[in-house]
Each structure stands twice: as structure tokens, then as C-alpha cells.
Design goal:
Layout lengths: L1 H8 L52 E8 L2 E11 L2 E11 L10 E14 L7 E7 L9 E12 L9 E12 L8 E3 L23 E12 L4 E7 L20 E10 L2 E8 L3 E10 L19 H4 L14 H17 L2 E7 L6 E8 L5 H15 L6 E8 L2 E2 L2 E5 H7 L5 H7 L2 E3 L9 E2 L6 E16 L2 E16 L4 E13 L18 H4 L4 E15 L2 E9 L4 E10 L6 E13 L7 E16 L4 E9 L5 E10 L5 E9 L3 H4 L5 E9 H5 L6 E6 L16 H6 L3 H6 L7
Parallel strand pairs: 15-16
Antiparallel strand pairs: 1-2, 1-13, 2-3, 3-4, 4-5, 5-6, 6-7, 7-9, 8-9, 9-10, 10-11, 11-12, 12-13, 14-15, 14-20, 16-17, 16-18, 18-19, 21-22, 22-23, 23-24, 24-25, 25-26, 26-27, 27-28, 28-29, 29-30, 30-31, 31-32, 32-33
């Protein structure tokens, strides 16, 4: 502790004024908080009110917003994928006053936006951003823009308190943003929005075409709480102010005020187009900024052998010849690991007495690197002094994921080193795990294993034109039985307590209805969600295998097989999966419908730098269509994962229906980030603009890649700082 304090305060020199560094007062916290992240416009992107700005959110920021004015509601989700690129998904409703849009009194629509910063703001140069709005929807809000923003510091309000910022924005817009006050046209006329279009296709031939108009505005961020905005809008709202008569556009000027209710929440009120009042609510989260710090019990310090193994007899290796002594060590380690949330599966103590291999199962920590560090400390604390080489093998579902090899003397010497993480990782090897040794001492309490859980569930249904959000809620009773390593028999009974998914719109698909009969499956209150038997094992070097049979999910059952090639130190993995499936009956018991099909995919996975993951799956889908799915995800060190995907198959856009092709985004949030307590559970959700039947895969429990990669070198390396936690 004294050493740590000395490192924190630095050398005890005497500065001018007579106070030593050890007795000097603690530095004071800044008097004023920094200004908040950029505010968002009515489309969920950094901007003014209805117009965009050139600002970008902090890297990794995730924002959800709701805005309303003149009978129009917009729900937006925005993710800052890189420091220079952001993407948004929007769901909006336009409530008409008499005249319908595409036959609806309230017209609901979905769209995607993307923005890219061309260059950063400099001392004299504004930031410049280019954007595509509603580029993959029906095109009701389709527009493109180039916008510049410059910030200027402003004095504190009333001469006291924190100063603020004045942001000046100006830009040029096309499409919706070029429909009022046009100053010219590029490449001829641009087709107008057609109500009832299925949308979903990229209209790249229309981008930056047609009339172009300027827009501008200012934002004064008075302090860390209040902001005020004014803008000149270039959107004529021709559709809304025409026959549907949504509102009357009397002016091109909009005004608003926003209040930062908390570090993550902002509220706004506005006067728009000379006739309407509007409101917004914004919530911004960042994976790098958890709601509360992680409360993890401190690890037990490493006890250097030089402090307690002081006699020659302590270093004797005779213990390695005694089965009783080795069994005693196994039991002691099992108890120590249990206190850390780890389960000992096996330990190998060779006759030489200089090394030990520990195989464990991680039930507490999201980071396998953190679990490796805890296991290493337990081994250093309990094993005889003659054991120098520590081999640690993380296990998952009976699979040995890798072997982490480190020297005990390095662990002892580097614990308090100023560069402990990098120094220890530099002398640590991560390699392929060998087969379990014949003389390994296996835990006698693990198999057979029976487990149960009882938990609530939610089953949402999105974007029904009659009701955009539907939900079923209830409870799941899950049970599993593991008779031996790698084997698993599992099932889940679901009881729905309340919901309205069963009231959704019936399917109009011309393809086999492999997903769009969701409402039919939601008619029953007590269902068998799944029931299956699975086995996974190592087939050879870098090669993993899985076989599964039974009821995989609520809609399909059958047989499934998978092979995965994934070297421990490689960023690349290749896999192949084959399934023969039968569609389950609507009551989700043990009966089936007539539809049967073969489906399978070849997959390539690649881990890029900075947490980005690329995945391509090519093959045959549930409806009999052939094609490929392209996915890009970003994973943060604290476990957040955000990504998107799209699937292109040989199904035409007309046969596919609304949306033209399958696409969506997914979010995975570790619960320990929310709760501040270590755990491995996650909240996962996938949102599709439209659920159709083309490009759909069966959900097979326990696919291999995510299991295997968590114990491989790249994943362990990305979390290497946690080896000391």
C-alpha cells in the first residue's frame, strides 16, 4: 500500500512554498462540468431542429430519441460506429387530417440514415459532414446534404459561472432538404415519393440529384444545462402540407430550447414553421461510460514463494508422487476457485512437480482474461513451491478453448510493476489446448449435472401498421442435464401471461411462411419453447464440431451439424453448418406441419482491429432461397456489441414484399455494465424494419463460433488489462 501511495503522489520533493508533495492539498475537482455531447435533431442525428449539423457524437455513443410536431412522430436510434461515421434507424408516423397516405389514416414508415465526416474542425476551418437520409427506405424523407459547422467560445451567462459555445451551421440539401428555396438543380429532375412503395432498395441513381437548396442555423449552448437553437429550414414538407393537410407551413424559421435533465437525458421544446409546437426527448448512452462502477471483490494478492518457502524441504518434489497429496491439492484448488466464481473441471500435476495444468469453467466473469488471472492467483497461492509453469485452460460446454501458459515467478515479480499488464502479457503464451492427460484429476462433482432456472421473458413484434409495437410477456422455466463433458439435454416451457402479438396482421407472403406466421404461433399461452440434445467436441487440431437434434426454437425442429475451423491465434475462422428442419405446429408441442426443408451455410468470420467483426454466411435459407448474409459488428472492451446485417438472395424484391430484402441491426448489452456486478448474462435484441420470409435462418442453440472465440488469443489480448483484476 505504501508503494502504491508513493507511485500515486510521486517523489517527495519540496516545491516552492515549503509544502512537500506528501503533505500538499489534494487537487480540486473542476468547478464546472464540461459541455455535453452534441444535441440531436428531429431525425436523431447531430443537428439543429429539423436540419443537420456537421458534428459527430463521441465514438461509440448510442442514442435513442423521440420527436413530435404537427401530428408527426419519429422514433430514432443512432450509433456512432467510428469517430467519423454514424448510422441511424428511424420509425415515424404521419397522422393525416382526412386525406389518407397510401390508404392509411396514420402512415408509418421506416428508414436508415448514414453520415460521414469529411474533415474535422480546425482553428479556422469548420467541420464538414456529408449525409444520406432515408437512403434505404420508401424514400419519404429521402435527402442528401453537405453541411459545415464552426464552434466559438462564449462568455458565461451574466459574467458568472461556466462559459458556453456558439455553433454556426450552414449547408446544402437535395431531395427533401432541397425542396424549399432552391438555388439550382443538378442532373435534372428527381422522382417524387410514391406512397405505397415497398421501399428498401438503394436509390443511388437519385443521390445528389434534382433541386439543391441552402439551410442554416445557430445553436447557443449557454452552459452544461441549457441550449437554444434557431434555424432556416429548406424542407418544404410538400407531402404533409398537401392533401393530407398534416400542418400548415407558414414560415421557414424554427426556434427551440433544450434542457439537459441528466448527463444522459435531454428534453426540448420548439416552435416550428410558424404554426406548430414540437417536443423531443433524447437519451444518450456510451459503452465506455457505465451507469455505475463495477463492484468486483479484490483478488487475493500473489504471495511470493520467497516470503514463505524459506527452507530447502519446502521445495521438495516428493508430493508429485503421492496421489493423496495431488487429490488434496485438487480439492483445495476447487474450493478456492469456487470463491472466485470458477469451477474446476480437471487438474494435471505431472510427476516432475514443476508444472500444473488447470481446466476451469467460468460462471462469473464476462472476461475470460479476468478469469485466467483469478485462476493463476489461486494456483500461485496453493500449489507447492516447486511448481513454476502454470498452464490454464478455459473450458466452455466441454470444449477446451486454449491453453494460457505463464511462469509463476513472472506473476510474483510483476504484480506491482508499473507496467504490469504489458510486462506479464509479453511473457505469456496462448496456444492450442492439448487433449486431457490420462493422469488428470477430474472433478468428481461435475457430472452428471442438472440445472434449472425460472425467469421472465419478453417477445416483441415491431412495425405492424395498425400498431407499431406489440409485446408478449411471461415466464420461462428452463432445465438442462449434462451427463458427460460436451453433452447437453435442455428444454424450456414458456407461459405467456399477457400480450397482443396474436392480434397482429396476418401474413401476405407469397414465399413459404417460415417467419411471417408469428401471430399464429402467439395464439397459445403454454408452449414448449425448445427441447433438444446436443453434443460438441474437438475433432482435431483447430477443428471443433457440434451436433444437435430436437426442437430448436418455437417454429422449427430437426437435426443440425456444424464444423468450425478456428486456430487459437488466428483472426480468421471458417465454418459450415447443415440442417434438416421441419416446421412446428402452431401450438408448439410435439406436432409438425407439412413444410420440410434442407438449409445450410458456409461461414467466414474475421476479427478486425478496434473490436470490429465481419461475418459472411452463404447458402440456402429456410424459404428455399439461396444467397448470403453480410454482417458487421463492433464489440467494446466492456462487452457492448452493436452491429448491422443485410441478406441478399435470389428472391426478387416483388416476391420478398415490403422492404425488398432482409436487413436489420442488433444490440447486445452485458448486464454487468448496467448492474455494476460481475456476471455473464446479456440483454440481446434484433430489430428488423420488416419481418419477411426471405433470407431467414433457423435458430440453433449453441452455435460454435461465439463459444470458441472467447478463449482465443485475440479476445484474451483485447482484455489483457483484466488479468490483474
Amino acid at each position: 500500500m505504501l508503494l502504491g501511495a508513493a507511485l500515486l503522489v510521486g517523489p517527495a520533493s519540496t516545491p516552492a512554498g515549503g509544502q512537500t508533495a506528501l503533505t500538499a492539498p489534494k487537487p480540486q475537482a473542476p468547478r464546472f462540468k464540461p459541455l455535453p455531447a452534441p444535441s440531436l435533431n428531429f431525425y436523431g442525428s447531430p443537428g439543429l431542429i429539423d436540419m443537420p449539423s456537421a458534428e459527430m457524437l463521441p465514438d461509440g455513443q448510442f442514442a435513442t430519441t423521440y420527436s413530435w410536431f404537427g401530428g408527426q412522430s419519429r422514433y430514432n436510434l443512432t450509433f456512432q460506429a467510428t469517430p467519423w461515421l454514424s448510422a441511424s434507424f428511424r420509425y415515424n408516423g404521419i397522422k393525416t387530417n382526412g386525406a389518407q397516405i397510401a390508404g392509411f389514416d396514420t402512415y408509418y414508415d421506416r428508414g436508415f440514415d448514414v453520415r460521414a465526416r469529411l474533415w474535422r474542425e480546425g482553428r479556422y476551418r469548420p467541420a464538414v459532414t456529408i449525409g444520406l437520409q432515408d437512403f434505404a427506405g420508401t424514400g419519404i424523407y429521402a435527402s442528401e446534404y453537405i453541411v459545415a459547422t464552426k464552434r466559438f467560445a462564449t462568455p458565461p451567462l451574466g459574467g458568472r459561472g461556466q462559459g458556453g459555445q456558439l455553433k454556426v451551421t450552414a449547408g446544402l440539401g437535395w431531395g427533401r432538404l432541397g425542396s424549399h428555396g432552391s438555388i439550382g438543380s443538378i442532373s435534372g429532375n428527381r422522382p417524387a415519393f410514391v406512397p405505397g412503395d415497398t421501399g428498401g432498395e438503394l436509390s443511388y441513381d437519385q443521390w445528389f440529384r434534382g433541386d439543391v437548396a441552402p439551410f442554416a442555423g445557430i445553436e447557443w449552448q449557454a452552459n452544461d444545462r441549457w441550449g437554444f437553437k434557431a434555424e432556416y429550414s429548406s424542407d418544404a414538407y410538400a407531402l404533409e402540407t398537401g392533401a393530407p393537410n398534416v400542418f400548415e407551413r407558414k414560415s421557414s424559421f424554427n426556434f427551440g430550447a433544450e434542457y439537459r435533465l441528466s448527463p444522459r437525458t435531454r428534453l426540448g421544446a420548439y416552435y416550428l414553421y410558424g404554426s406548430e409546437f414540437g417536443i423531443t426527448a433524447q437519451i444518450q448512452l456510451n459503452p465506455k461510460d457505465p451507469p455505475q462502477p463495477m463492484a468486483v471483490p479484490a483478488p487475493v494478492p500473489v504471495a511470493p514463494r520467497s516470503a514463505w518457502a524459506t527452507e530447502e524441504r519446502h521445495w521438495s518434489r516428493d508430493w508429485a508422487q503421492s496421489r493423496k497429496a495431488r487429490t488434496t491439492l485438487r480439492d483445495a484448488l476447487a474450493e478456492a476457485l469456487k470463491q472466485e466464481g470458477l469451477i474446476l473441471e480437471a487438474i494435471t500435476l505431472p510427476a516432475g512437480g514443476s508444472s500444473a495444468e488447470l481446466r476451469y469453467r467460468n460462471t462469473r466473469y464476462r472476461s475470460q482474461t479476468q478469469a485466467v488471472g483469478r485462476a493463476a492467483r489461486a494456483m500461485a497461492r496453493l500449489l507447492p513451491p516447486s511448481v513454476e509453469t502454470l498452464k490454464i485452460v478455459p473450458m466452455r460446454g466441454g470444449l477446451a478453448l486454449s491453453q494460457v501458459v505463464l511462469r509463476r515467478s513472472d506473476l510474483e515479480a510483476l504484480e506491482f510493476d508499473a507496467d504490469a499488464t504489458e510486462a506479464l502479457w509479453a511473457v505469456t503464451a496462448v496456444q492450442e489446448a492439448p487433449a486431457l492427460a490420462q493422469d488428470a484429476l477430474v472433478s468428481e462433482e461435475l457430472y452428471p449435472a442438472f440445472a434449472t432456472s425460472f425467469s421472465p421473458y419478453t417477445a416483441p413484434s415491431y412495425f405492424d401498421p395498425a400498431l407499431p409495437f406489440r409485446l408478449d410477456i411471461g415466464v420461462d422455466l428452463k432445465a438442462s442435464y449434462a451427463p458427460a463433458p460436451g453433452w447437453r439435454i435442455a428444454g424450456a416451457i414458456r407461459q405467456r401471461f399477457w400480450g397482443n402479438v396474436a392480434d397482429g396482421r396476418p401474413s401476405n407472403s407469397v414465399l413459404p411462411r417460415v417467419r411471417t406466421d408469428q401471430r399464429e404461433y402467439a395464439q397459445f399461452g403454454t408452449t414448449l419453447e425448445n427441447l433438444y440434445v446436443a453434443r460438441q467436441w474437438r475433432m482435431g487440431q483447430d477443428l471443433y464440431a457440434r451436433s444437435t437434434a430436437g426442437l430448436f426454437e418455437s417454429m422449427f425442429g430437426g437435426v443440425s451439424g456444424e464444423l468450425l475451423w478456428k486456430p487459437v491465434s488466428s483472426r480468421l475462422a471458417l465454418g459450415i453448418e447443415a440442417n434438416y428442419v421441419v416446421q412446428r405446429d402452431y401450438d408448439q408441442r410435439f406436432s409438425f406441419r407439412d413444410y420440410k426443408t434442407f438449409t445450410g451455410h458456409a461461414s467466414a468470420y474475421y476479427q478486425l482491429d478496434n473490436g470490429y467483426h465481419v461475418q459472411i454466411d452463404a447458402g440456402r435459407y429456410l424459404a428455399g432461397d439461396y444467397g448470403a448474409t453480410f454482417s458487421l459488428d463492433r464489440e467494446f472492451a466492456n462487452g457492448w456489441r452493436v452491429g448491422g446485417f443485410f441478406t441478399l438472395t435470389d428472391v426478387s424484391s416483388e416476391d420478398f414484399g415490403e422492404g425488398s430484402f432482409d436487413k436489420g441491426f442488433r444490440i447486445s448489452i452485458p448486464l454487468d455494465w448496467l448492474l455494476g456486478k460481475p456476471g455473464r448474462n446479456r440483454f440481446n435484441t434484433v430489430v428488423r424494419p420488416t419481418q419477411r420470409d426471405g433470407g431467414q435462418r433457423v435458430e440453433v442453440p449453441g452455435r460454435l463460433y461465439e463459444q470458441v472465440r472467447e478463449g482465443h488469443r485475440n479476445r484474451l489480448n483485447s482484455q489483457r488489462a483484466r488479468i490483474w483484476e
